[in-house]
Amino acid sequence: MPLAATRMGRILPSQTIAITQKARALKAEGRDIISLSAGEPDFDTPDFIKQAAIEAIQRGETKYTDVAGTPALRQAVAARLNADFDLDYRAEEICISIGGKQVIYNAMVATLNEGDEVIIPAPAWVSYPDIVQLADGKPVIVPTTSETGFRLTAEQLRAAITPRTRWLMLNSPCNPTGSAYSREELKALTDVLLEHPQIWVLTDDIYAKLTYDGRQAYTIVQVEPRLRERTLTMNGVSKAYAMTGWRIGFAAAPVQLIKELIKLQGQSTSNACSIAQAAALAAVSAPQDFIQEMVSVYQKRRDLVVAALSRVPGLICPKPEGAFYVFVSVQNLLGKRTASGHVLKNDEDFVTALLDETGVAAVHGTAFLMPGYFRVSYATSTELLEEACRRIARFCEGLA
Ligand code: GLU
Q: Containing domain of residue 234, as a range?
């Protein structure tokens, strides 16, 4: 009898995590590795946030909290969503979880029955389809194209909907492409959703504060308040506040869904770490100017990487509007041979050879459901990015 349950056969290890861990292990062995694989800010968590956590420990806030989070944090998250997106949630419509990942996991497990369909525009974050499959659902992958900036169109959405559709998952700015939907683009999608009252929307807004060139990110309920009753707005502190390791994500949704999320969380992890919640409270309650400082650094790095990679013959590197990724086409280089004789049959061969031969770790597009590309995270220092781009250029120029 196999050890693993049948459901484990439906999922793969997270490729973003696997490649990042491989890069970390190679580095520990003494190899000269530049890791551009992790979707993780290189900035340290701001001091005032760390201090809030230390004070929470000193006050003895080391016990269970309500499963859905402390009343203070739920209230502060509601206020943050109001200030940032003009959303109007009450504290009881907020659930605090262990990262955005748990919010998505809870939502899918709590709502999907076998065969229920979840529309996922591709490219998409590696974990969406696997979480849906763990929850017995069926991911319906809708490939977008570079012509629409990797954004789902109303026609594509309409064509993907069936009587079994339960959710649409949207992510703007998007991991891995950095594409951000304009208000009008989102409105075109919400108009389609208004025609289908059985469909819920999960909007993953984790990168919403990281947009460039003065652009703003929008979220579903802000654009179409009539969808409030069937939207789960997901966000968290990981990316915007450089707090990945603290593991705090939030769900904002109608109470009927929040109750289900709390019920499930109460039978799995219970509350998110009390100390991390105190830190998140400080983060979301503070004046938010410090985020703008990080955003301007990210924008400069984006410009650096896009300029450097666009100069490399064979690579196509669009300029993203947000997040901290560029999603680069390697289609022109497939079939070529590396300096050490490896033939690059696909994007996975490309990133494997890139790591083996240059020490630069990146994630292949297939992991994000879009073959022929690779994702570079530019949430790392300018010096390392410059060196990584030089190595990528040399590697590509050496292909024959
Ligand atoms: N979301 C980040 C990434 O895409 C972190 C790793 C993960 O959980 O996938 O790299």
A: 47-287
